[in-house]
Write a structure and sequence with these properties.
Elements lengths: L1 H23 L19 E4 L2 E4 L5 H12 L3 H5 L55 E3 L3 E2 L4 E4 L2 E5 L2 E2 L7 E3 L2 E3 L1 H13 L4 E4 L8 E7 L2 E2 H7 L4 E2 L6 H10 L56
Parallel strand pairs: 6-11
Antiparallel strand pairs: 1-2, 3-10, 4-5, 5-6, 7-13, 8-9, 10-11, 11-12
C-alpha cells in the first residue's frame, strides 16, 4: 500500500505548488481614468485646430509652439512647390492616372555598349568568282588572239592580235610570224572549251577575257610572244619580258624540221590482170585450203 501512496502524494504536492505559484505572480495594475489628474489650463497651447498640452518644465517647446501659432497662413504658400516627376499615361481606361501633369517625354542618348560582342556584325562581303563566265565549246583560232565559237567571234581582251598575213624580220630574214602565231594558238587550244566573260551587248567582234581551265588566255599569249599587250591592259610587263627574252614574234623564226630522204618505192613488175573466175564460174587459181575457196556460182536460169 505504501508504494501506491507515494506517487499519489507526489501528484497532490505538484498540483499544490502550481496553484500557489499562480497566485504569487503579480497582475498588472488596471488603468483607472478617474484617478488621473486633469491637465493645468495654462499648459494647453492652441496650435491650429488642434490642442497641444505642454509642460511647464519644457519652456523651449512651449515657445516654439507659440511662434508657430503666431505665423500667418500665407507663409506656407510662399514656399515653392516641388517640381512634379515626369510621368506618362499608361492606360487611362484601366489604370487611374496619377495626379501629376503629363510632361513631354525626352529621348535620352543610348548608352555605350558594354562590349563589341553585343553589336551586330557587318554582313560578309559576297565573294566574287574570278573564274565565272560563259563556256564556249570547240573554239577555232582565226588569228593569234581571235577565235570563233558557236557562230560568235571573240577577241581576247587586253591584248592586240597579230594578223595572219603579218611578216616579221629577224636578222634580215622575213618569216610569217602572223600565221605562226595563229598556229601556236590553235595548238594550245586543241579544241578545248574557253570560259569567257561576255558583255551583254553582242558585237561583230566581242572583246572578252577568257581562260582555259584556270589559265588566263591573254596572259599565255603575251607571255609566249604570240600577241601584243594593250597599252592600258594588264599584260604590259609580260610583253616586256617576252621582248627581252626574244620569244614568239619577237625572236627568230622557228626552225623547220629536217625532212628525211624518203627512198623511192621499189619497182614492181607488171602483174597480169587475171579474172577472178572463169566464164564457167570456176576460180582459176584455187587456194590450197578448200575452206578459202569461193563457193560455186549459182546455175544460170
Amino acid at each position: 500500500m505504501r508504494a501506491l501512496f507515494l506517487p499519489a502524494g507526489a501528484l497532490v504536492l505538484a498540483v499544490a505548488l502550481v496553484l500557489l505559484g499562480g497566485r504569487m505572480v503579480d497582475r498588472p495594475a488596471q488603468f483607472d481614468a478617474a484617478t488621473l489628474d486633469p491637465p493645468d489650463p495654462g499648459d494647453i497651447v492652441e496650435f491650429g485646430d488642434d490642442l497641444v498640452v505642454s509642460s511647464a518644465a519644457e519652456p523651449d517647446d512651449a515657445a516654439a509652439a507659440a511662434a508657430l501659432a503666431d505665423q500667418p497662413a500665407e507663409s506656407a504658400a510662399a514656399v515653392p512647390p516641388a517640381a512634379p516627376a515626369a510621368s506618362r499615361l499608361v492606360d487611362p481606361a484601366a489604370v487611374a492616372p496619377a495626379e501629376l501633369p503629363a510632361l513631354d517625354l525626352q529621348r535620352e542618348a543610348p548608352r555605350a555598349p558594354l562590349s563589341q560582342l553585343s553589336l551586330a556584325l557587318p554582313p560578309e562581303p559576297e565573294l566574287k568568282n574570278e573564274w565565272a563566265g560563259t563556256p564556249l565549246f570547240r573554239p577555232l583560232a582565226v588569228e593569234s588572239a581571235v577565235f570563233q565559237s558557236a557562230g560568235r567571234t571573240i577577241a581576247i581582251a587586253g591584248v592586240k592580235s597579230v594578223p595572219v598575213d603579218e611578216s616579221c624580220v629577224h636578222d634580215g630574214v622575213a618569216w610569217p610570224c602572223g600565221m605562226r602565231a595563229r598556229t601556236a594558238f590553235r595548238l594550245w587550244l586543241r579544241g578545248r572549251a574557253l570560259v569567257c566573260r561576255l558583255p551583254e551587248q553582242e558585237l561583230e567582234v566581242t572583246p572578252a577575257r577568257c581562260r582555259l581551265a584556270k589559265q588566263d588566255a591573254g596572259a599565255w599569249l603575251v607571255a609566249n610572244g604570240w600577241a601584243l599587250a594593250a597599252p592600258d591592259g594588264p599584260y604590259v610587263q609580260a610583253e616586256e619580258k617576252a621582248r627581252a627574252e626574244k620569244i614568239g614574234v619577237f625572236g627568230a623564226p622557228p626552225e623547220a624540221p629536217a625532212v628525211a630522204d624518203v627512198p623511192d618505192a621499189p619497182f614492181l613488175s607488171a602483174v597480169p590482170d587475171l579474172p577472178v573466175m572463169t566464164e564457167d564460174g570456176v576460180d582459176p587459181d584455187p587456194p590450197a585450203d578448200p575452206r578459202m575457196a569461193f563457193p560455186p556460182a549459182p546455175p544460170a536460169p
